[in-house]
């Protein structure tokens, strides 16, 4: 079953219909946002506590309006430079809470899994400014998950690309943890249409977990292994009557594919053979926050396990 909430006018009222936003409209958008949680209180203490089992690396920072947000990654302690890398990213969209929590829970409870076979790098909160404001975009109304490309307009994406550049050839598997929420339909997609000066066309939100693979690297066995693991802890989203999820034809139950390089998605920054983006639906009456976090952890573990077995 899919839910199609009615869009609210909170951000569609900004600017002139049919005309993309400029600096004034972006400033007006920012003025309507409130800090709803604190990165330094909810994310960074959990990162610090992991120093006993992970290398904690500050790979960069972003600074907005006089405020600096340090960016951290967790790296397992393998020293063999020939080992492949499993990359886990969360919080690319700051409002997608289980992506951040799921990445941290994986690091907290599965630090030793696959030790000596693959190096794990976990980046739990790519976009802290947006995490605090429960937003999809960064401070400049740029979507980081459309900005993983050379010359990125997103400081968050650029920092991660620069840091991982020297080892991107070693990335064997990359799983990026996301959510699809009712607010996608009531807030973020209407805001996107207003920002870009186009008409908003209502859509539907899938009820359940699904994956977004890469059209250039489909790996159906890899995607299916993740879906089977997640199905043990959370329900998989059924397709709509027309065989789509979020308006895109499903290539298998619970799976759609995008051209990730072309779109500038986070999983498109490397040439890893195994890549996927998770999508959890936390607004479902059939789930809980803990179940959403567990689904993310199950997906990460299955992704890494499959990538290693496929060598």
TrEMBL record:
Span of domain Succinylglutamate desuccinylase/Aspartoacylase catalytic: 86-183
Reported cofactor(s): Zn(2+)
Keywords tagged on the record: Carboxypeptidase, Hydrolase, Metal-binding, Protease, Zinc
InterPro entries, per the entry: AstE_AspA_cat (IPR055438)
Highest taxon of source: Bacteria
GO MF term list: carboxypeptidase activity; hydrolase activity, acting on ester bonds; metal ion binding
Pfam families: AstE_AspA_cat
Alphabetical list of SUPFAM superfamilies matching this protein: Zn-dependent exopeptidases (SSF53187)
Residue segments, region Disordered: 1-22
Protein name: M14 family metallocarboxypeptidase
Lineage: Bacteria, Pseudomonadati, Pseudomonadota, Gammaproteobacteria, Lysobacterales
């Amino acid at each position: 079953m899919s839910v199609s909430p009615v869009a609210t006018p909170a951000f569609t009222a900004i600017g002139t219909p049919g005309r993309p936003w400029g600096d004034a409209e972006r400033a007006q958008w920012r003025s309507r946002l409130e800090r709803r949680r604190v990165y330094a209180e909810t994310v960074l203490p959990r990162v610090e506590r992991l120093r006993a089992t992970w290398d904690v690396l500050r790979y960069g920072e972003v600074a907005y309006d006089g405020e600096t947000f340090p960016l951290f990654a967790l790296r397992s302690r393998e020293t063999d430079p020939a080992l492949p890398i499993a990359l886990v990213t969360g919080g690319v969209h700051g409002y997608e809470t289980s992506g951040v929590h799921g990445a941290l829970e994986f690091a907290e409870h599965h630090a030793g899994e696959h030790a000596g076979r693959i190096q794990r790098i976990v980046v739990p909160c790519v976009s802290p400014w947006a995490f605090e404001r429960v937003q999809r975009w960064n401070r400049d109304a740029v979507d980081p998950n459309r900005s993983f490309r050379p010359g990125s307009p997103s400081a968050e994406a650029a920092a991660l690309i620069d840091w991982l550049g020297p080892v991107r050839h070693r990335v064997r598997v990359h799983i990026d943890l996301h959510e699809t929420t009712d607010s996608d339909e009531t807030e973020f997609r209407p805001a996107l249409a207003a920002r870009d000066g186009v008409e908003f066309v209502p859509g539907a939100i899938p009820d359940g977990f699904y994956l977004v693979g890469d059209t250039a690297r489909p790996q159906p066995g890899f995607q299916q292994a993740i879906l089977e693991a997640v199905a043990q802890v959370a329900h998989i989203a059924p397709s709509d009557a027309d065989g789509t999820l979020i308006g895109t034809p499903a290539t298998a139950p619970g799976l759609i594919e995008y051209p990730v390089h072309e779109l500038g998605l986070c999983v498109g920054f490397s040439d890893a053979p195994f890549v996927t983006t998770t999508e959890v639906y936390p607004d479902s009456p059939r789930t809980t926050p803990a179940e959403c976090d567990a689904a993310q952890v199950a997906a990460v573990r299955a992704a890494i396990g499959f990538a290693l077995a496929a060598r």
